[in-house]
Amino acid sequence: MVLLEASTLHRIPRVLSIAGTDPTGGAGIQADLKSIAAMGGYGMAVVTSLVAQNTLGVRSVHTPPAHFLIEQLEAVSDDVTIDAVKIGMLTDAGTIAVVRDWLRQVHPPLVVLDPVMVASSGDRLLAAYAETALRELVSQADLVTPNLPELAVLVDEPVAEDWPAAIEQGKKLSTASGTIVLVKGGHLSTESSPDALVDVTGRIGRASESVVEFIHPRVATKNTHGTGCSLSSAVATVMARTGDWVGAVRQAKSWLQDALTHADELEVGHGNGPINHFHQLWAAAAAHSLQHNQDSSTP
Hints:
Elements: E1 14-20, H1 28-38, E2 42-54, E3 57-62, H2 66-77, E4 84-87, H3 93-106, E5 111-113, H4 131-138, E6 143-144, H5 148-155, H6 163-177, E7 180-184, E8 192-198, E9 211-217, H7 227-242, H8 245-261, H9 279-297
Parallel strand pairs: 1-2, 1-4, 4-5, 5-6, 6-7
Antiparallel strand pairs: 2-3, 7-8, 8-9
Helix pairs in contact: 1-7, 2-3, 3-4, 5-6, 7-8
């Protein structure tokens, strides 16, 4: 299996999220920072867009001037060693161009692109004319993590109606871009929720192995806001620490399954609420506190 160079791995990865905001904390940069922390990384953030949204939908989007985005990116990379970059919402071609040029200058060791185009509420988050620029950016990423509608846009085909068709689209995108693709089956109407790493060049395993699947039971919850943001940033963090794509996706998927299973406990908002990023941490803390209390009460 192809791993990152040992010199690029870091015990506490310094992971930069380049994305939009969510004032209710469930998606975008806020979700990225929670996911990075939950996976044992140190999160940093550069804002591409200020989004007025909640669990019910997007109200408006404000994109700061390009020069300010450049200043944010340079402020981080001039000072901090970056172990991984996770890219999320890029609203227009100008924003994409700034990020593309910065990547070429800085050459971060690991880039994960979540091609955010449409919010779970159905709101459009990427201008249609910018789709070509986003396709070009895919080739600069090590991993791209589209949902099925986004994958269809990237390969310029109708949305896949079943899992085999989705895998084939993933192969087409990997072939065209030279990038590893994490195909996500969350939009399918199936009992399971399949994902798959797809890479036509064999970087995810044996040279003859182009697809590695990850199958989990579908969680019965409406609280899935920010799932894509969270998974991509979690994978970036684990990969920066371990250098193992398959292991990184497996660990991130297991954590996400738990975060979805316990999402309803948060009771945030009246629409599609967020996942429970820190359930595992909080559960461990509660167990430790209980054990401490029991030990203290023992004569």
